[in-house]
Amino acid sequence: MGNLRLSQATPGIVLLLSLFANHALPATALSCGSGFSGTITTADQVDQYTYAGEAGGMITISFIGIPSLSLFDPSGKELSLTDGYPQQVTLPLTGTYLIQVKVPNFTGPNSYRGSLICRNPLQPASPLSCGATTNGSLIGGSVAQYFFAGQAGGNITLTLTFGQASLFDPSGKEVLSFSGNSGPVILALTGTYVIQAVGGSFNHPILTSLGMQCSSGMNGEGFVPVLPCRIADTRVGSGFSDPFGAPSLPARSTRTFPIPLSSCGISSTAQAYSLNVTVVPPAPLGYLSIWPTGQPQPVVSTLNSLDGRVVANAAIAPAGLNGSVDVYASDSTDVILDINGYFDPDITSTAAFYPDTPCRLLDTRSGSGFTSPFGAPSLVFGETRTFPLLSSSCAIASTASAYSLNTTVVPRAEDLDYLSLWPTGQAQPFVSTLNSSDGRVVANAAIVPAGTDGGISVFVTDSTDLIIDINGYFAP
Fold this sequence. Notes:
Number of helices: 0
Largest sheet: 7 strands, mixed
Number of domains: 4
Number of strands: 31
CATH class of the largest domain: Mainly Beta
CATH architecture of the largest domain: Sandwich
């Protein structure tokens, strides 16, 4: 390789890389929000920069110029980068990362410049709420981090008086970089969002303020409850046809479900869906994932069935390309999708979510302390029972249009084929909220629309005790 001429060298930072025969290579240390630049003037020149990262952190590298950029982890392994910039990388290890800039086919001097934005999951963050403004001081390389609870379909506007900021979604993906006014931003996921303000190239402290305004969809606004409806069932004989019916998903396969084209009447402008996902595997199922069509498959699990049991789980799934969602199964399985509501910022008849301290609505077990209609007796084979939730002791607003519930069954038989929840006064839908094929205690979350007089109805295929807790509700 010859001698390396390193620009912007900082003594004392040493990495050992087999690529360079274990030569000690000084480099310039970067921090979150740092900019870097230089000029490659000879064929053997390699400019180097380091960043102290933590496993699970996210960095985004912006880069402009003819020279090429390479990124190495603390072990010396070169990380794969996609074509184009900015590059977003999830850090696999904790330690010092190395950025190298060089010109593979040198024909003359070439200048470049870049910047590093990073999200460190262990960095302290302060809460930010709708309508709030927070003030602080930034200097070059410094970072101020904030977080807020966002709802899929939420619509927010962020303002930053000085500096640069990035918005990260609950998966850690950077979804926005802004300074000044961000303009309206529609949130794709439900969960904790992080805002990171950085000092950029300022060489002295500056006073800055960050503010957030929320409109439709924030904190649950834009939720439209619907009568639970079956979207897809891949079992042979289910009555559903392609793309919502058979065949089963083979092992390591992905299938797209265009939810707005289903028979459930879901708006094509929906930003996210409240689903109940059930798997019926013939053998152990490592995991199943659901995510918006058109996005890279995330390394996440929506549910698992390691012993091959029928398993159900609630999920909020963002809408992808043409309103579709993708489903991946690690092993062969049938999949059933039911929907009980969606988030849509384009309609006026919407509901906001009102979180509350979890409260037990009912418990049919003998000796639970609950009385009729919220207590014993147990539900028996094939029974339908109505629960007038507004009459419970949990103080639910009479204007509630849907409830956020946790439902638990304690079967009194060897198995419970399925349990269904739906709004009182509506025809019983052909949907499943949860299953217990081996008679074990099982719980699942569910969003259930309020029915006549605020009631909900329950059907069980087999004898079971039932416990329902509430953690919030949707209302105007």
